[in-house]
Design brief:
Layout (H helix, E strand, L loop, with lengths): L1 E9 L3 H9 L1 H7 L8 E4 L6 E5 L5 E10 L3 E11 L2 E2 L6 E3 L2 E3 L5 E9 L2 E10 L4 H21 L2
Antiparallel strand pairs: 1-10, 2-3, 3-4, 4-5, 5-6, 5-9, 7-8, 9-10
Helix pairs in contact: 1-2, 1-3
Length: about 150
């Protein structure tokens, strides 16, 4: 299994960073680096599904492993969604000429606050695939946008 981490320090309390990460309006903003129409559909319950989709219902789906508000969110990617339907687990999607295999990739968000500064760490763990190269391009941009949004008054 491969592990990749991305980290940023944000001049805001964890509650503010958490809301930027997961509230619909701000999630759509910072996750626009993945896809301009990207949004989440979920009940946020541990064990439940979370869909990362565009307005036509195309994207990825995962299962929430842990959800501790203002501290930790983790989900395991299970596959792709097409037209609001889960696709077979071995289905592959090509993005920018690279085959993306997200099945079995665990994505986690850890927040830790000290003296009003929140450290946000995003960790991806999974089988070797092109998702690592893709992540190294998009996650730094996404985290910068989270930081910008959280530090706004």
């Amino acid at each position: 299994m491969n592990k990749v981490s991305y980290k940023t320090e944000i001049n805001a309390p964890t509650e503010k960073v958490w809301s930027v990460l997961w509230e619909d309006k701000t999630y759509r903003d910072w996750s626009g680096v993945f896809h301009p129409e990207n949004h989440i559909v979920s009940d946020w319950e541990v064990g439940g599904r979370i869909l990362f989709v565009d307005n036509k219902g195309n994207g990825a789906f995962a299962q929430i492993i842990e959800n501790t508000p203002n501290e930790f969110m983790s989900f395991k990617h299970l596959g792709w969604v097409g037209d609001w339907k889960e696709l077979p687990l071995d289905y592959e999607v090509t993005i920018n000429g690279k085959v993306m295999r997200w099945t079995e990739v665990t994505e986690s968000y850890l927040l830790h606050e000290k003296n009003g500064i929140t450290t946000l760490t995003v960790e991806m763990v999974g089988p070797k695939s092109d998702w690592e190269e893709y992540g190294n391009v998009v996650y730094p941009k996404a985290l910068q946008r989270v930081k910008d949004l959280a530090e706004m008054n």
